[in-house]
Design goal:
Layout lengths: L1 E4 L5 H14 L11 H7 L6 E5 L2 E10 L9 E8 L8 H15 L4 E6 L4 H9 L3 E12 L2 E11 L7
Length: 163
């Protein structure tokens, strides 16, 4: 397994994996993967990674800024997705650990995640790597006509922004 920087050449596989996550109904409110241009514009230019096994992209992780205000420049939202055939093999944990390291190298002091309560594996991975539950958003959005809740988690770096 190789962890590498995510580039536009990886995006067809990234979009495919994203769509697989969407189909679970427990990964995101999104209904389709965006184009590369939209995805590229909405994510931070750093801390974009893929997990590659052989010649196959088996997962990806990236950060989205939480705000355009300069005071929040060190706060980002986490996305981690694993190919459906490779779930349950520790790839999500490997990607999140690498994403945490990349974020700290790029002066990110707080990572946050909004996870559906039904996505117990994602909650476990995040909590296992130092994220803590900080809130619960009840009926925050609709998916297929059903109101959904999310659990808010955050991880404060012990290396960046500590002074």
């Amino acid at each position: 397994m190789i962890i590498s920087e995510l580039s536009n050449e990886h995006y067809p596989a990234v979009a495919e994996i994203y769509k697989q996550g969407i189909l679970t109904g427990n990964a995101t409110f999104q209904s389709d993967a965006p184009s590369w241009e939209e995805w590229d514009k909405s994510h931070l230019v750093h801390s974009r990674i893929v997990a590659i096994e052989g010649d196959t992209v088996v997962g990806w992780a990236a950060l989205t800024p939480v705000s355009g205000r300069c005071v929040y420049a060190g706060v980002a939202e986490v996305s981690v997705y694993v190919r459906d055939t490779h779930r349950g093999k520790g790839i999500g944990k490997l990607l999140l650990r690498a994403l945490i390291q990349a974020s700290e190298k790029n002066d990110i002091w707080t990572l946050q995640a909004g996870i559906f309560p039904e996505n117990e594996s994602s909650l476990g991975i995040h909590e296992g790597l130092g994220f803590r539950r900080v809130g619960y958003r009840e009926r925050i959005g609709q998916m297929n006509g059903q109101w959904r809740d999310t659990i808010l988690l955050e991880r404060r770096s012990s290396l960046v922004g500590v002074s």
